[in-house]
Design brief:
The protein is an alpha+beta fold. The chain has helices at 7-17, 21-30, 35-52, 84-87, 90-106, 118-131, 137-155, 170-181; strands at 60-67, 73-81, 161-162, 165-169, 186-194. It has three domains: 7-52, Helicase, Ruva Protein, domain 3 (Orthogonal Bundle); 60-111 and 156-194, Tetrahydropterin Synthase, Chain A; 117-155, no CATH class. The protein is 53% helix and 17% strand. The chain is globular.
Length: 198
């Protein structure tokens, strides 16, 4: 039995996700009209689309900044894409600025997990070893690994829940933009500044 999808449902999903009308309609049809399931379907598809574009090269991008209202902390972010057509789009620039705001708030150390060095892992392991002292030997390694995974998930930008919508990670946000614009995108680099007490 097919469910009738209304224009209001499609519009509401589009407003919430920013994804094209056709993709929203297809996701709602696949989800039997359930908006929450449709969002999951769109996120899954955006991750698949993003993965398919992984071998493309960056030729454009935008640099955006965010300065917190107190004027003592801010971030500059470089968001890369494939063409000037996308990099000049206001929505793309807004995405870069949102990521800059997120970095200002969360202070990640790495963009992706691939940037975590062996030295970083070793240092963190030494710190957390003290926290598992006295635990049963059989459980120590599992507890330690759990602490390390949590710590590095919090330090890696693309794994962090987006501050404006904690149901999405920064990677989900980028994947949704890839789905919308049809181009490969990634954070190239960022620099966070904070006034230091002297």
């Amino acid at each position: 039995m097919s469910v009738t999808i209304t224009t209001e449902q499609v519009k509401a999903l589009r407003d919430q996700t920013g994804v094209s009308v056709m993709q929203c309609k297809k996701a709602l049809e696949e989800a039997g009209g359930d908006a929450e399931k449709a969002i999951v379907i769109l996120r899954k598809k955006s991750g698949e689309i993003s993965a398919k574009k992984g071998d493309r090269t960056f030729k454009a991008g935008a640099i955006q900044a965010y300065i917190h209202s107190n004027g003592t902390v801010g971030t500059i972010v470089e968001l890369n894409c494939e063409s000037d057509f996308v990099s000049n789009n206001d929505e793309f620039k807004t995405l870069a600025r949102d990521i800059a705001m997120h970095v200002t708030a969360t202070n990640p150390k790495f963009i992706t997990a691939a940037e975590v060095t062996e030295a970083d892992k070793k240092t963190a392991r030494e710190v957390f070893m003290k926290e598992v002292e006295g635990k049963p030997e059989a459980m120590k390694e599992k507890i330690l690994q759990g602490k390390l995974d949590t710590y590095f998930a919090e330090m890696v930008l693309v794994n962090q829940p987006f501050i404006k919508n904690p149901d999405m990670t920064i990677q989900n946000l980028i994947d949704a933009a890839v789905q919308k614009f049809g181009e490969k995108m990634a954070v190239g680099r960022f620099q966070r500044f904070k006034i230091l007490e002297r």
